[in-house]
Amino acid sequence: MAAYNLLIVEDSPTMRQLISFSLKRLKNVKIVEATNGVDALKKLSEEKFSLIIADINMPLMDGLKLLSIIRSDPIYNNIPVIIVTTEGAEADREKGIKLGANAYLSKPIQTTELLKVVTGLLKIEN
Amino acid sequence: MDKNESDIIHKAEEFLKVFRKGEEFTQELLKENERLRYRTVQFEDQVKALQRRSEGPEIENLKDTIAHLEEEKTALINRYKAVEDENKDFAARYLEVEDENNNLANLYVASYQLHSTLDFTEVLTIVVEIIINLIGTDKFGIMLIDETTNELSFVASEGIDSIKNKKIKIGDGIIGDVAKTGENYFEENLESFHPASDLHPIVCIPLKIKDYIIGVIAIFSLMEQKNKKLTKIDYELLSMLAGHAATAIFSSKLYSQSERKLSTIQGFIDLLSNKNK
After folding, report:
1. 3.30.450.40, 3.40.50.720, 1.10.10.10, 3.30.360.10: which CATH number matches B115-262?
2. H-only helix segments in A49-88
3. Cα angle: B41, vertex B45, B51; to 5 degrees
4. What are the residue boundaries of the structural domains of chain B, listed by start?
5. Which residue of A29, A81, B34, B49 is most buried, as measured by CB atoms within 10 A?
6. A14, B110 in Cβ contact below 8 A?
7. Is the sign of the CA dihedral B79, B80, B85, B86 positive or negative?
């Protein structure tokens, strides 16, 4: 059984696969993918997660809305959340941090940086 | 006995006392002198013995051992330095391999996604996603050649609303030239780049299957975090896109055409079979 259960919330299949591919290099991790905020909430109700990586711009429910729901729910509010932002989205980034995001990554995502942030938040060795 | 005589006797007795004390002191000095002479002789013997030993084979052996150990120490220091250099090389190589690994992952994902569908619109969306998310550009367009008019027109774009309806003749300007020659175009100095016109790209790559050019990808600006620089992986991704995106776009276009033809033929068949009934 994997020690860390990671949830990737991203509408772009390319980005989802890239993040997932990068995270699979960590030991003892299981990766679950969600295509938007609503899908993420469904996945959250089904199993426990150690960390969430969420894009901001997504259909149905964006990353910021998802983050605010997670932070206001006592069951999920301790899960570390990384938000993924695009260039020129400083306002979104600041909003994300204010809502309780633990870290943010800018696109294009660098694998080294992603692994550094994830291992730092999970307190595991890369 | 008068007073003078008793004084003389008294002085004589005192002198005698002082003389005896002097004698005792002299005796002690003589004894100490003798003891010191004896110690001197002992030390001289010891020094002689040590000198004899220092000239002996034992010392030579020890000197040899020291020289040998010194050599060994120098060799170990040199080996340590070599291992340290080797470690630095390994660390640098590790980082290189790590980078290469990340680059390969990006290339794999891009290539996998490009060939994951035969839907023309989906393929275009994937190419757009790759250009935005893997290369990091915010203004670009995908142009395809219309063979009836010999013109390039945008089929997908991002951040270039003012020019996305423009058409470019093959051979016109940088973009038209890339479509004609099939050669990649990379602006040499991105830091001091000033576009000559709104259709002046920083990067333009042909979409080609072998020598058959179907269009181009024109990039007009990079995201701010790219610091006006293209990395090694960007060039590799762009080169990969030139071939793979072309194949994916071309095959999806052919597939949708064949789907349309198939449904038309099917329509005819249905019509004919209904007539025959």
Report:
1. 3.30.450.40
2. 63-72
3. 145
4. 115-262
5. A81
6. yes
7. positive
Task: For residue A18, give the nearest of B109, B136, B224 by CB distance.
Answer: B109
Mutation choice for A interface testing from B102, B123, B219, B227 by most A CBs within 10 A: B102
Cα–Cα distance, B277 to B34 (Å, whole number): 153
- Residue in A with minimal Cα distance to B107: A18
pLDDT digits (tens, 9 = 90+) for B242-271: 888 999 999 998 888 888 888 888 888 888
Residue B166: phi and psi, rounded to 5, are -75, 150
The C-alpha of B151 sits at a distance from chain A's nearest C-alpha, in angstroms, of 30
Q: pLDDT (tens digit, 9 = 90+) per residue, B196-250?
A: 788 899 999 999 998 899 999 999 988 877 777 888 878 888 888 888 899 999 9
The span from the first CA to the last CA of chain B, in angstroms, equals 192
Could you tell me which chain B residue has the CA closest to the CA of A115?
Answer: B102
Residue A18, class by beta-carbon neighbours within 10 Å (0-12 exposed, 13-18 middle, 19+ buried)? buried
pTM over 0.90: no
Residue B62: both structure tokens together = 């020890």
Angle at B231 between CA B225 and CA B233, to 5 degrees: 115
- Per-residue pLDDT tens digits for B102-147: 878 888 888 888 888 899 999 999 999 888 888 888 899 999 999 8
Query: What are the structural domains of chain A?
Result: 4-122 (3.40.50.2300)
Q: What is the ipTM of this complex?
A: 0.74
- B133–A15 C-beta distance less than 8 A: yes
Kindly determine whether residue A107 and residue B110, on different chains, have CB atoms separated by under 8 Å: no
Spatial contact of A63 and A37, defined as CB atoms under 8 Å apart:
yes
Spatial neighbors of B126 by CB under 8 A, at least 6 apart, are A13, A14, B113, B114, B116, B117, B248
